[in-house]
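The authors assume throughout that readers already know how a fold can be written as C-alpha cells. For illustration, here is how one protein appears when written out as sequence plus C-alpha cells.
>
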Amino acid sequence: MPSEQGAGGVAWLFPGQGAQSPGMLEPFKVAPDFGPCYEQICTLAGLDPLACATASPDILNGNLVGSLLTVLASSLAVDMQRAAGEPEPAAVAGYSVGQWTALYAAGALDKPTLLSLVARRARCMNDAAQGEPGGMLAVIGVTAARLETLCAEVRDAGHLLQLTNDNAPGQATLGGSMAGLALAEAKLTVFKPRLVTRVPVAGAWHTEQMRPAVAPLAAIIDEAALQPLRFPVIDNTSGRWLPAQGLTQALAVQVAVPVRWQQGVRNLVALGVHTCLELGYGDLLTRFGFFIDRSVRHQALVPSPRTAR
C-alpha cells in the first residue's frame, strides 16, 4: 500500500450516481473497447439501458443501471487519458460508487471485473432496500452540524434519517425512510436553506438501511482478489487513504456509512495536490471543489450535464 508521502501533484476524481442522462456516454464512444464494455453492461442489466431510456428516462436512475453507466463513463475516461499520453495521477478518489473507478484507475482490477463487481454491489444494495422504501435529500445552505441535530430529532420521532454525504461546506445529502425525508423537509424550513430537493436514487444509500448488504458484498470483494494499488486511493468514508489491512471491510461497509467527500479533498490538498481533475460524466465534484478549496485548480474533463444534454 502506498504511503501518504509523495502524494502531491494531480489527483483524478471520479463521480458517483446522480448525473445520468441519455447522452452521457457520447463523449466516450470513441474509446476502443466501448462496444464490448457496453455489451457487458447490457448483459449485466438484462436490457439496453440507453435504448430503453428513450421511452423511460427514469430507468437511468435505477441503482444497477445508474452505477454501471457512471462507472463505465469514468473508466473509459481513464483509458482515454492514458491513450493520450497524459501523466499518471499522484492519487485518486471516487465519490460513492466512484470509489470503484478509483480502484480501477489504481490497477486493483480490470474493467470486466469492475463492471461485474459494481453490478453485484448494486444488487446487494437493492436487496437491502427491499423493506421500507427510502430515498435521499440534497440540502444546500445548512451546516452539517445542524443537519446532524435534525437527523437525531427525526430518529427520535421513530423514522430513519442520517447525514449520508458531507460534500462541501453547506452542501450535504440526507438519506432515510420516506417518512423521515418528509419530516426533514418540514423541519428544514426553520433554517431557510438555499435548496432542498429529492435526489433521483432508488434507496437510502449510505445509511443503516444498507447494513444487510455489507456481509455479502465483502464476500464478493474477497472473490475479486484485488491487486496491489499503484498509487494511493482515498477512502471516501474517512477522507484518509484506503487501509492496507482490512481493505475488504472498508470497501464493503462503504454502502452503509456516510461519504466524507470534503474531508478527502482537504486531505489531498494538505498532502500537496494542486490540481483535481474530474474524469467521467458531469462536473458535480468540480463544483464541490470550488467550495472546498479555491486555491486548488478544479476541472471537469468532459462536458457537464448542462452542456451535454
